[in-house]
Amino acid sequence: MPTTLRERKKQRTRDALLRAAVELFTSQGYDETTVDQIAEAVDVSQRTFFRYFAGKEEAALALVEMTVDRFVQAVRERPPHEPPLEALRQAVLEGWHSINEVVESVAPVEQYLRMYRVIESTPVLLAAHLRRSTEVEEDLAGVIAVREGLDVDADPRPRLAVAVFSGVMRVTERQWSVGDDFSLDGIRALTAEYLDGVGPALLGDWRTA
After folding, report:
1. Half-sphere exposure of 122 (CA within 13 A, CB side)
2. Which residue, among 129, 137, 132, has the nearest Cα to 60 in the 3D structure?
3. Per residue in 160-193, is it b (16+ CB within 10 Å) or e — as a string?
4. Cystine design at 74: which of 50, 68, 91, 153 (Cβ 3.0–4.6 Å)?
């Protein structure tokens, strides 16, 4: 957390730029929003914007990055007796319960949720989001390996567990973003439903008479 006056001022400027960017992206679209518009909304220069973000793409994904970082840390802090998939499940569900604590210092949760639709409907953002997801999968596999006392490069199970979990989360994001219930309760319920369906989906008999 920022401690000095200078650090706190820098954090406030970054938060203000991010808040303005999210408001513009969700109200008028990613492609229609310019860096100049974001900077003008905060009454700073374009140069100041680039001190905090490499570009529009980074600003558009920043809120999601905040929650992903918190999720990875939450997995690391789960009780050691929990099996890997249970630790991942509990961390993501509890993350949805505490989402306000992570994002509301920057933007309302409703805008955070709307950014998912912006990401899903904008090819360049979706590509960046999926690319970042593969990096997070590696981080999570390493966390699971440490929790289980395994060598992540010698034992494939941490990566397999994370791949299953990430696949479910990707389906959840996609279905929720195009569904009718675009609420926090909606994604929380859908996440739990899909994660609970992993076992039956992988091991059950799908055939009907």
Report:
1. 22
2. 129
3. ebbebbbebbeebbeebbeeeeeebeebbebbee
4. 91
How would you label 9-44 residue by residue, b for 16+ Cβ within 10 Å and e otherwise? Answer: eeeebbbbbbbbbbbbbbeeebeebebeebbebbeb
Which of 38, 96, 44 minimizes the C-alpha distance to 71?
A: 96
Tokens coding 27:
């109200």
35 with 49: CB under 8 angstroms? Answer: yes
Q: In tens digits, what is the pLDDT along the chain, a chain of 209 residues? A: 567 888 889 999 999 999 999 999 999 999 999 999 999 999 999 999 999 999 999 999 999 999 999 999 999 999 999 999 999 999 999 988 888 888 888 888 899 999 989 999 999 999 999 999 999 999 999 999 999 999 999 999 999 999 999 999 999 999 998 888 888 899 999 999 999 998 888 888 888 76
Q: Give kind and range of the element (H or E) at residue 205.
A: none
Tokens of 56: 């529009």
CA 46 – CA 36 distance, rounded (Å): 6
* Residue 179 φ/ψ region, left for φ over 0, alpha for ψ in the -120 to 50 degree band, beta for the rest: beta
Residue with tokens 């003008």: 40
Cα gap 144→159, rounded to integer Å: 9
Cβ within 8 Å of residue 110, ≥6 positions away: none
